[in-house]
């Protein structure tokens, strides 16, 4: 790999070559050359390679980022073969990053891929150095405390964070883009003279977002945000926190998860005309499925995650603000502004 493909420094960005412009022609027509240039000079860190990350990586690599750093300490298991299409039967027992690296590189030889798997890299000093060396961090299928910790490090060094994952048929994306400036179409401009306007959003960290209060929303607004799914995801994080990172995997957990979810629901002051308690059938379903990956859910959430990362890098259109949830039971998704 040519050294220039490692991504240019901020003071000396790498210019897109004619060959690269030909490869990315369709995207350049969509985003513009300047946006593609930003992607080309971006280094993205992806932590943990499960199904959601697999889908997201595929899309951001094909789109033409400059460098991808993948970090995972675990080995490929038989369960990974379902949703993780970078893995094959013969990879079981190998480190995930080692098994995935060559297949990621094959997607787009223009992108440099670095694999990291040493557990000490997530210790404070090493994590600081790792975050400082990239432009954007993406963490998938992680517990709440771990995400809050990484989010704090990202904030300290001014790096945007995306977090995403699935719990069976449910999925989520959270992003903290700090203060994000972007170009957005002016919807009020006449059709014959469309123009773009500069816009900006100020994001909140995860530890603040999870304390969001739903007060003041109308019945319709509350219903559109699908509060049951949001609160089940928050409850799963709390359950993990209480059980050393483990997710519920049978009906024995149903009563505890229901109690946690309804406690969060009461505290967050959701409109009681819409939801007085989290539906028991949703609790029962998630208790037997949360610990497992389903390819369709990973495809939707990972695809959305990649699309939003690229949108943030390109600084075109508004990214997610700031908590997206997907309900595979109904095939619907919604975006909730959590303490923004």
From TrEMBL:
One of its GO terms (cellular component) is cytoplasm. It comes from Rhizopogon vinicolor AM-OR11-026. Belongs to the ubiquitin-activating E1 family. One of its GO terms (biological process) is protein sumoylation. Pathway: Protein modification; protein sumoylation. InterPro entries: ThiF/MoeB/HesA, ThiF_NAD_FAD-bd, Ubiquitin-activating_enz, UBQ/SUMO-activ_enz_E1-like. The keyword Nucleus applies. GO terms for molecular function: SUMO activating enzyme activity. It is found in: Nucleus. PANTHER family: SUMO-ACTIVATING ENZYME SUBUNIT 1, UBIQUITIN-ACTIVATING ENZYME E1. This is Ubiquitin-like 1-activating enzyme E1A. SUPFAM superfamilies: Activating enzymes of the ubiquitin-like proteins. Residues 24-338 form the THIF-type NAD/FAD binding fold domain. Keywords: Nucleus, Ubl conjugation pathway. The lineage of its organism: Eukaryota, Fungi, Dikarya, Basidiomycota, Agaricomycotina. It holds the Pfam family ThiF.
